[in-house]
């Protein structure tokens, strides 16, 4: 009887230790992913022109416009700059969610949802970002 109780306590502590180790592994993985995301954003910040086809100053102006006029904002887990960087990265390199989720260490659903929200915010800026065309006058002397 005493040995069965001791074995039960042993298995109980063993399973508690496994659960604790699994939880610690999840926390460590979350921390590692956060560090990798920050490193990727830092790389995008330093190579902004080649990766996003936009210089840093213009990128931050676009982020401010999306925040102020477009009504876009960051979430608890993602900053607005990361959302806009993902959006521009997808457009600049014509990539799919599967590729971008590995690049930014996010799930495909998160990438898709944030892309659509950013697209809606950019569409709200169409009156500021798109230039209206002026028709060519009949008496124009410009050969172009």
Please give a structural write-up.
The model has no long low-confidence stretch (mean pLDDT 82). The protein has helices spanning 2-46, 48-52, 56-68, 80-93, 97-104, 108-124, 126-129. It starts with a helix and ends in a 15-residue tail after the last helix. It is mainly alpha-helical and 144 residues long. The longest helix has 45 residues, at 2-46. It has one domain. It is built from 7 helices and no strands.
Features:
rod-shaped, mainly alpha, 144 residues, 7 helices
List the topology elements.
Blueprint: H1 2-46, H2 48-52, H3 56-68, H4 80-93, H5 97-104, H6 108-124, H7 126-129
Helix pairs in contact: 3-4, 4-6, 5-6
Summarize the structure.
With 144 residues, the chain is mainly α.
| Tally of structural domains | 1
Radius of gyration using CA atoms only: 25 Å
N-to-C series of helices and strands: HHHHHHH
Structural class assignment: mainly alpha
Beta-strand percentage range? under 5%
């Amino acid at each position: 009887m005493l040995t069965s109780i001791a074995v039960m306590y042993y298995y109980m502590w063993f399973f508690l230790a496994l659960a604790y180790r699994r939880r610690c592994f999840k926390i460590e993985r979350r921390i590692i992913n956060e560090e990798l995301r920050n490193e990727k954003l830092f790389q995008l910040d330093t190579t902004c022109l080649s990766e996003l086809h936009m210089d840093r100053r213009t990128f931050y102006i676009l982020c401010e416009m999306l925040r102020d006029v477009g009504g876009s904002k960051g979430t608890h887990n993602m900053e607005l700059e990361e959302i806009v960087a993902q959006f521009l990265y997808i457009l600049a390199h014509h990539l799919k969610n599967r590729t971008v989720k590995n690049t930014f260490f996010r799930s495909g659903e998160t990438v898709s949802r944030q892309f659509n929200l950013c697209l809606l915010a950019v569409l709200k800026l169409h009156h500021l970002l798109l230039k209206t065309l002026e028709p060519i006058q009949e008496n124009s002397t410009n050969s172009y």
